[in-house]
Amino acid sequence: MLSIIVAVAENNVIGGDNTLLWHIPEDLKRFKAITSGNTIVMGRKTFESLPGVLPNRKHVIITRDKSYTVDNENVEVIHSLSKVINKYKNSSETAFIIGGGEIYAQLIHNVDKLFLTKVFKSFDGDTSFPQIDSEEFSVDFESEIFTCEKSGLKYQFVDLVRK
Ligand SMILES: NC(=O)c1ccc[n+]([C@@H]2O[C@H](COP(=O)([O-])OP(=O)(O)OC[C@H]3O[C@@H](n4cnc5c(N)ncnc54)[C@H](OP(=O)(O)O)[C@@H]3O)[C@@H](O)[C@H]2O)c1
């Protein structure tokens, strides 16, 4: 099974200058809880935006650069998205697509579930989440709206599933 996990601003922005534009510790905790012990799939740019290889998760990094290597036993570098789709789409093992914009846009039509964090503010950025088609997904879960103690940002967890 393929799932997407993403935090999206009100104007669909998800990042800028290859970094996140907000800091919501509770969202990072949820990201860790959902993805730990599982496979995470990401574009090369998102991988390079991370502090390093995240513990307790198998990383699949997508790049067109055939010479790109990461010397870590928990990292696999691949060069085509079809490899991800073929391996996980009909598997009982879940792989979480964790970004970024290019990878979300190319895989959104192949995922069964989206774990969204909606951030109730617009941000200036250079990377956006693709438009979600309401014909394709329905709401499976909506949390209450929380306020981040640290940033004051309002946010909500919303899970969507393929209809
Ligand atoms: N808010 C969130 O939840 C969230 C989550 C993740 C990321 N982000 C943000 O998103 C931004 C990064 O996103 P991005 O769109 O710039 O980059 P990205 O999707 O992370 O990575 C793009 C790279 O992936 C590789 N790639 C893309 N399509 C490919 C294909 N079909 N086959 C092989 N390789 C392919 C290419 O790598 P090469 O150039 O090496 O060939 C491309 O440059 C950052 O600002 C990050 O902070 C936000």
TrEMBL record:
Q: What class of enzyme is it?
A: oxidoreductase
Q: What's the superkingdom here? A: Bacteria
Gene3D superfamilies membership: Dihydrofolate Reductase, subunit A (3.40.430.10)
**Residues in the signal sequence:** none
Please list the residue ranges annotated as the DHFR domain.
1-162
The reactions it catalyses are: (6S)-5,6,7,8-tetrahydrofolate + NADP(+) = 7,8-dihydrofolate + NADPH + H(+)
PROSITE patterns membership: DHFR_2 (PS51330)
> Keyword Oxidoreductase: yes or no?
yes
**InterPro entries annotated for this entry?**
DHFR, DHFR-like_dom_sf, DHFR_dom
Which pathway does this polypeptide act in? Cofactor biosynthesis; tetrahydrofolate biosynthesis; 5,6,7,8-tetrahydrofolate from 7,8-dihydrofolate: step 1/1
Recorded E.C. number(s)? Answer: 1.5.1.3
Keywords (A to Z) from UniProt: NADP, One-carbon metabolism, Oxidoreductase
Pfam families xrefs: DHFR_1 (PF00186)
Q: Does the keyword Oxidoreductase apply?
A: yes
Please give the function described in this protein's UniProt entry.
Key enzyme in folate metabolism. Catalyzes an essential reaction for de novo glycine and purine synthesis, and for DNA precursor synthesis.
Which family is it part of?
Answer: Belongs to the dihydrofolate reductase family.
The name on file for this protein is: Dihydrofolate reductase
